[in-house]
Amino acid sequence: MSPQPTSVADEAADPTTEKAVTQDPQLREGAFGNATGLSCRECGAVQPLGPSYACPECFGPLEVAYSFPALTRDEIEAGPNNIWRYKALLPVPADIESSPNTEPGFTRLLRAENLGRELGIDTLWVKDDSTNPTNSFKDRVVACALSAARELGASVFACPSTGNLANAVAAAGARAGMRTVVLIPSNLEHPKQVNSAVFTDSLIAVDGNYDDVNKLAQEIAAEEEGWAFVNVNVRPFYAEGSKTLGYEIAEQLGWRLPDQIVIPVASGSQLTKVDKAFRELIELGLVEDKPYTVFGAQAEGCSPVSTAYKAGVDAIRPVKPDTIAKSLAIGNPADGIYVLDVAKRTGGAVEDVTDDEVRAAIVKLARTEGIFTETAGGTTMAVLEKLVAAGLLDPTKETVAINTGHGLKTLDAVSDQVGPRATIKASYDAFAEAGLV
Ligand SMILES: *Cc1c(COP(=O)(O)O)cnc(C)c1O
Ligand SMILES: [Zn+2]
């Protein structure tokens, strides 16, 4: 079969097709806050801040570099209860709060005593990102991408997506009053389609799979000027939004890092950025330097990163996804190799679980903690359980697991598992017969 790597939505695009969002945008002073440039993760070459995402020297992915000012916990705590309290650490202007956006973040960090007891973990926390404005962690990254799109003078805010990203882009674009176009595969789950279409009249369902949708997005980005595709041509800015998960967890623990953290992996961006956030907090003296361990979670039906981890190889072999965890179904993850680096450096691991384990974990989290997670969160919780059983995660150490999305978006995953215990006539006798009294 074709050796072509699967090209998917969260993938860095082919740099040969790169075209500026706008040619020579007139950047205003401080458009990207304390960011100083875009540095290549592979060769370190630095590009000026702008609509670039691939290194012109080696095609490596670009990452935002900063010169941070001295920053105190008090200054951060005085900020708003959303991701902009960390605006000094993000590539956004100082007046970011004055531009309409969905104000994501500062979601709950819940002590999960019941689940912890069931799994034998002494101190377990769930970072619950299902309560973001469009019910997934994607609102964080999209808020940062929206700022970049605005500063770069883009006229269209767009993305290829499997669902959560489309929801977040459509909602943020609506609030910003920007023209918004979101591209999805036409066979996407119905709730995710409605959750996008309600915010935009330009939801485009593409006949084909996710790979086809992404290729189309790259073609549009190459042909049209003024289109900001959040996960393609403004990806370096988009990706920085995931750092806020790490900042929040540390702040909510009382300015401390957890000992262990379990994070789902699709493109791998979120995991690598939470690690980046922890290292920045240490560097800035906002938390005490201490070792922490990062674990990655994938679904068996799309586990290119855990497969590479277990095989002990440094290269990711693309796969064709086949799993109910559709929001994690990226067969050729752009940041997969960096996930391997983080797991190895911190003494962690990358593990995968079956779809049945994902379904069981969704129900277990719901029944122990009252949190309804989507399949991505089910993957994370099932991997957490597996890591404890395998002795890879230390149950005596403080552990955080991230719930990245809401279960109402993937109802079908558990609709066979749960339902009415009985359907009865409206009489006490019938109720008694159901065995509940
Ligand atoms: C996109 C997504 C992820 C993973 O994000 P990456 O940064 O691409 O690894 C995890 N959970 C949910 C619910 C998502 O939508
Ligand atoms: Zn380079």
From TrEMBL:
UniProt protein name: Threonine synthase
Transmembrane helix among keywords: no
Lineage: Bacteria, Bacillati, Actinomycetota, Actinomycetes, Propionibacteriales
Organism: Marmoricola endophyticus
Cofactor: pyridoxal 5'-phosphate
Keywords: Lyase, Pyridoxal phosphate
Enzyme class, UniProt record, top EC level: lyase
Pfam families the UniProt entry points to: PALP
GO molecular function terms noted in the UniProt entry: L-serine ammonia-lyase activity; threonine deaminase activity; threonine synthase activity
EC number, as in UniProt: 4.2.3.1
Family of this protein: Belongs to the threonine synthase family.
